[in-house]
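dumping the sequnces here before i forget
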Amino acid sequence: MKKKLLSLLVVATMSASFVACGNGGSDSNGSGSGVSITILNSKTEIQTQFEEMAEAYEDATGVHVEVYNADTDTTVASQVATKYASNDPYTLTMVDAKDIYSLADDYAYDLSNEDWVSHTNLGITVNDKLAGFPFCVEARGVLYNADAIEAITGETFDPSSVATLDDFKALLDELKAGGMEQPVGVLSEYWSLGAHYFAEVYEQQEDPDAFVNSLLAGEADLGSNEKFNELMDTFDTLIAYNYAKGSAANADREETSMKLAEGEIAFMFGGNWDWSVINQYDYTENMGIMPVPENTSDDTNTKLVGGGSKYIFVDSSDATSDEQRQAALDFLNWLVSDPEGNAFLTEQCALVPAFDNIDASALDPLSLSVKSYADAGKLIPNYNYLPDDHMTVVGQEIMQKYLDEAMSRDELVKEVETYFKSATPIEH
Amino acid sequence: MENEKAARNKKIKHALMIIVLTILFIAFVFPFIMVIMNVFKVKSDITANPLALIGRHGFTLENFPNAIKKMNFFRSFGNSLVVTIFSTIGTIILSSMTAYLIVRNNWKANKILFVTMIASMVIPFQVLMVPLVSLYGGIFGILNHRITLIFMHIGFSLSMATFMFHGSIHTNVPISLEEAATIDGCNKWQIFSQIVFPILKPTIATVAIIDAMAFWNDYLLPSLVLGRKELYTIPIATKVFYGTYSTDTGLIMAALLLAMLPILVLYLFLQRYIVEGITAGAVK
Amino acid sequence: MKTNTMSYKLKQYLLFAGVSTVIFACVVIIPFIYGLYLTFTSWDGVSRVKPFVGVENYVNAFADSGYWVSLGRTFIYSAIAVILVNAVAFIIAYMVTSGIKGQNFFRAGFFVPNLIGGIVLGYVWKFVFNKALVELASTISSGNAKSLLATESGAIAALIIVSVWQYAGYMMLIYVAGFMSVSEDVIEAAKIDGCTGSQSIIHISIPLMTASFVQCLFLTITRCFMVYDVNLSLTNGDPYGSSALAAMHVYNQAFINKNYGTGQAEALILFIICAVIGGLQVYVGKKGEVQA
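..and the predicted 3d for all of it:
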């Protein structure tokens, strides 16, 4: 037994060290002559396209690009944080705008001398350093299935005809009378409620920064704010016509998207990224995004909210070699200036490009909607400085409860105001 | 008469038990049935009606090759296998030795070690996560090696395994046996390896199963240690499917089934051994 | 042989526990101490600077009402889950050791839920609760059924159900070993003395199985207190944050809200509570064992 045990131990250690050695070999920059870079992709819906592109890119340039998919159970920020804590960062990291602000000082390489700079004004500059490469343009609004609407009304659907809440309601009632029991879907995910819908309350203000600051200072009177009430009136309507009424806080994203794609419902609050979910089902091309209907005196009900979305920064730390950094910069240039790179963005990934030299005529219906609003200058910019826990507190604890009709608007006002008084502002 | 009645009662009792067990059993395997029912459907059919035996788009096998390819199943399988086997062997040998030392010697150092180990079992992993990667990645730079993961797996599972061996040595290994061996001239190491270790077989089997499964299924630690694709284990590879914007349910079901299958087979094999082991241990 | 000299003790210790001690210290103790240090800094988890702030994080932790609410919730969840897990496990263990047909099959079967990992398991159950059961209920009652996960108490109930499902098989195994360690002779002797089946369980098996109980209770208590992955994948705190248990709150505090120090401090408080309860339970259990 002793011998057996001992030999077992010996075998175990030996094989373990063998494994370690074998691993050490394959660990160093794989493809021999070429450089190897890594990229974190936080638009997980395009992971497959990304990997296919990486293969083609290696064939063409000899640079090995390894694409990592962001972990969806945690925030991208925490994933990037652990990578930096372990001194094993990605060469290129794709994050949200607010993450660029927190990471840029320490870890982002200055991109201001790159060729593509002249083709966009959507990059993010932090302390005079151009840190974020804008990956695409995205916008939010109300998604509609025109086929489903026209089947009942019998007329061509014109989104501008329902810009006001009153007109929108009238159409919803018409749809209802025409047999569509509940024409609306509202996603229950906290990012949709908090970072997408409720965020419009700040974004549609004349001066979002001043408004958020007054909330943080405990001075704003949210309950009597015009934009807040207009948007919440619309939200009340969405709630009233929600197909998932009764278990609204638990509505399933896949199911809601399927219902919209197949015309069981006609409207859903969302953005052009939802296309990648919708096109999994029996969808119609006759869809689009329209502004959130509002009874308002300003022109916000003619605009979508959005802009540059997902930013890539190049690691500036010692963990990345100069050679790798150059390869990373070349890759970003390739995306903007090479026809293959353009095709990857607009055709394979169906993204609205953030650069004016890229042709984008072959996009999906939702992205085309977004592009037409963007080209017409009808995008209200994203507000990127909401406190870190805004999404979980306002999105999940407050808005989700409101969506489930377990909270009145007065209570909502009180809770949001209380939240802001103790929230940590984002420096910018 | 008495005996007949008792026998009949026993029969009724057993029948009742089997019924109760069967009902419970169905409840226990219900989620697995759901997985198997949906693995042969395309995504839109799963969303539409998860209970239907066959979806609108019919029966499909395409989820499997897709899942195998996207997970890089065979490479992940190999990685999982290496990590699981060596971590389990290491844990069993080290923890049984440690437990033996602690049970048989009432030293202060042992008490401190044992209490520390027990206390460490309730440390939430999240507490250690960032310090761990900062130390081993940021300072020593030894992440991205399977042996680092094996080392950490052993470290984290030692407490629990030592605790189990402790209980088992305490109750199942008669001290008289060891005293006799000492008189025959055996030293402590011989006593442990030739007498105590073999008696511990049932516990070894239990620890092996429990730890092997924990290692096989662990996601968080491997994902922190093994950041390179060629090192991915099955749970990390499975995670690749979960996307915020496109959860391909059919693929996930296939991946799930693939991830479970190897451990299920191993379990079926070891299960027989574990029952035999427990019986042998009980009879002494 | 001198068995009480320091050098003998040292040699024995190094031989049997030396490697274990080193690995254990490297993997658990040192990171733990480093983590402890981090609770005295205002590190955000990302930046290079880790400013020292003293006990500020602990002050914040005590003032964080969300944390204490989630902790209270965790107590309720754990109490119910621990009792149910052990009751179900014990009953199953009794039935599969009573010599019925197919007991090996059942033993194997009930253990199967342990074969899949927490994250995956949560997703499977989410699918079952939200889809399969809702579909089933709507068919039966022909109305629009609501998922258990959509209500506040329902979500906690769902967590408990999944915990029982997940842990009962594991604990059953320990109880089975306990039942089998109670020697047949003792039970036979009791029968001859006129004990009925249930009497022999209550008066003989249970007292002799104290070690199994101590072990199972300790495991279930600590696991329930620290449950995270199932919480994450099954409810993620929904509806409206009402099902976020302590570990999830801690995780969100540290990584989503980027209050790394406060999160770590809260985790430490959770650890202390957990250690005290677990320790007390083992201590009481061991006392009981001596008497039996």
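Residues 1-32 of chain A have pLDDT under 50 and may be disordered.
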